[in-house]
Amino acid sequence: MGWKTKKKIPRRHAPTDGSLEKMGLSQNRDHAMEKQWKSTALVVGGCYILVSDCEKIIKATLPSIKIAVANALAKDNIKQDKIAASLGVSQAAVNKYIKGKYSATLKKIVAQIKDSPEIRELVHYVEAGKCTSDISKKIDVFASKRIRVAIASLKEPPCF
What we know:
The protein is mostly helical. The protein has helices at 19-22, 31-39, 53-75, 80-87, 91-99, 104-113, 117-127, 132-152, and strands at 41-44, 47-50.
């Protein structure tokens, strides 16, 4: 289904400046279309922004790596505040990671990467007391590899 198809925008979120009509969208009440629209759009400052598959991959990769590392460190009895400081997230975020309070998409990605050598290497870095910048660089390298592989596997590769 192309972007020129009519999609439902909930009235409470729909911008009133006519931008929906310019994008070829309307405020009809079709619930199936609403679900599809919500899965492919973000609301930023009251405006709808379309999200490509690449953006979805990028937004899911970094958190999934941090979740996998946090879970592995928690199994090794590392305190949540140390995990948080090492990964550059809050202690509350680490608590949610450990309790499994994150999306089903992230859970699938975490299940795929949790036993990878890169995750074990990151866990070793944290346990060895490496500085946060070294850990961040390792996470970025692993994330960029995962992103390249995921984008390459898309059915319709993006146009750049």
